[in-house]
Amino acid sequence: MFDAPIVLASSLSIGHHGVMPVILEEGDAIIMDQQVHSSVQDAARKMQLNGVHLTIVRHNQLSELKKKIEELGAKYNRIWYMCDGVYSMYGDVAPINELISLADHYKNFYLYVDDAHGMSSFGKNGTGYILSKASLHPKMILCTGMAKGFGTIGAIFVIPDQELALKVRNCSGPLIFSGQQATSILAASIASAKIHLSGEIEVRQKFLAEKISYCHRLLKKYELPDISDPETPIFFIGLGMMSVGFNLVERMIKEGFYVNIAAFPAVPEICTGIRFTVTIHTTLEDIEKLVEALVKHFPLALKEEGRTFKDIQRAFRKVSNFDNNQFIPVVKNEQNYFRVSHTDSINEVSESLWNKLLGHRGIFTHKALQLMERTFQLSDKPEDNWKFHYYFIYDSNNKPIIATFFTEALVKSDMLSPASVSEQIEEKRKHDPYYLTSKALVMGTVISEGDHLYLDKSNNDWRNALMLLLDTVSELSEKVNIGQVLIRDMNANDTEINDFFIHHGFVRYQLPETHVIEDLKWNNKQEFLNRFHKHRKQYLKQRVFKSEDDFNVKVYSGNNDRIALWYQLYRNTAQKSVQLNTFVLPENFFQNIIEDTDWEVIELSYKGDNTTDREIVVAVMFCYKTGNSYCPLYAGLNYDYLDYDIYPQLLWQTILRAKELAVSPINLGFTASQNKKKFGVISYSNVGYLQMKDSYQMALINLMPNEVR
């Protein structure tokens, strides 16, 4: 069939794991297409352990691929581009002729192509889509499966180099030690191969092509959102939200049509769809009935989930070419009357209303947000320019059901990644400060902490109100071309909220624990110590109380004479902390907060060791005072004095300051859990919900090795 050396495997997955370790060597690099099949990705990831560099490029982006080849060309021996011939989600195809041109142009560039979904349907002797468009290139490994169009079980690896093919056959552990194909399977494969070598395969291919074309014509006739390639037997109907996908799949199965859902992570969260295939056994009547059922249930599923066709057009604008007049007049469910209020300045919001609903929950009182709006604007650095969006949703009685705010800001895409991953990325940012960064709409701000969403669940229609908020934010993200929306600091145990966001296409992610001291009902150190077990008492006595007299503590407010020193201490800490990886804040933020009487700075100075009279400022804590809580926001440390237990001492002095002010709770925030738990904090588990239009950066980050510390 292939007129080239081949290696057989019992499955493609086993084959990829067997072939890659033989053909790739330490010092090689792999570039994966973002949508290459999962079996290829899984095997490629394991090659990192063999000293092979692994990265990705956006789907079918040749210009990006070319840049990546040139970037890696001088660093690595060979560069392997791994892609599909026919992609399993959208049914689109690889630009194989352009890829072969790159292989001809770049001496150390090679191709590894999985054409399982093109097998039998295309090409001479049914050898697949790739060989229907080009000849087998000497620098290409072609992989294909026998479990789809071929009609049996197993996998074929076409390796132009006879010596390399023998090496794979004789040296591949997974191929040598995996179970061999049964005799019955081999017999069936031989019978199928005989069909492929006869004229019958061309008749079957033509027959299939006619049915594919007929199905596409019907989908276009009824203006259904057909995202798939017109040549391939894989069909993808774009639906947008995951909830619509599940709804329509259930409806179609009840009608007797087996279709399956394509959802995250195979596609972006808002690009859910249903998939089905057409075979030569599918009759024209089957196709007509399938499309008839889609025409009936597609608008019903949209309506039931409160979606419109315009949502789908927004989601698939990059992968489809809808006609301008293509539109199905679907209306959303009848809902209670809601009124949305949106403004971009806190000055246009009632101070009393805001502070009543949200301001008491953290560092986002009306006054605090005024300060942030003044600070994060007109900067030369993009990360220091924020735009604020405040939302209220009122019911028919003009009662607020929802109040919240979002910040439009540049964020590091690894903000919540493991510290070891962020450390690798920060090395690259020394030369490219905005590597793996992107704009996001973040509920709250990137520096605030707390429950940023006021939601009146006593209103039975709160879900529709929350859906209206998401629609409004989605329209904003489309308008300002922002690809991700982050919902923050939600109660991890709120199953209603969790189900809502998951149902509407958000991905849940774990946030670092937040730490709170709620009870300050003690009068002295001994009463404070009596709350703890023996080992914690010993820690506090030896590491905190014993050295307390070695430090002077001062509290500053409304005075910025020492801001340069304090800011340097903050930068020391911010640049070392990657557990929650954010941009270093600008100095003018700290200048502004020091001039605000709601803020204060706790300064910790080491008295010295009697060799000098000069005190040395070793730590500071920037704290915000609300009417009923104390919020330490950032610490700054002199790392030359870490052995003096300055951070535990700073935490203790912060607790004493809140006690002096008679303010509780103390919101000690994220990170440094081990230290904070020594002081009896209560730790709360919060989660966030993320929706992304383009998951490329996250996919790239997920390729980086996470070294467990």
TrEMBL record:
Record-linked SUPFAM superfamilies: Acyl-CoA N-acyltransferases (Nat) (SSF55729), PLP-dependent transferases (SSF53383)
Residues annotated as domain BioF2-like acetyltransferase: 535-669
Keyword terms, alphabetized: Aminotransferase, Transferase
InterPro entries in alphabetical order: Acyl_CoA_acyltransferase (IPR016181), Aminotransferase_I/II_large (IPR004839), AON_synthase_class-II (IPR050087), BioF2-like_GNAT_dom (IPR038740), PyrdxlP-dep_Trfase (IPR015424), PyrdxlP-dep_Trfase_major (IPR015421), PyrdxlP-dep_Trfase_small (IPR015422)
Cofactor dependency: pyridoxal 5'-phosphate
Entry keyword annotation includes Transferase: yes
Aminotransferase class I/classII large domain span: 22-294
Pfam family of the protein (one): Aminotran_1_2
UniProt keyword annotation of Transferase present: yes
GO molecular function: pyridoxal phosphate binding; transaminase activity
Record protein name field: Aminotransferase class I/II
Organism classification: Bacteria, Pseudomonadati, Bacteroidota, Cytophagia, Cytophagales
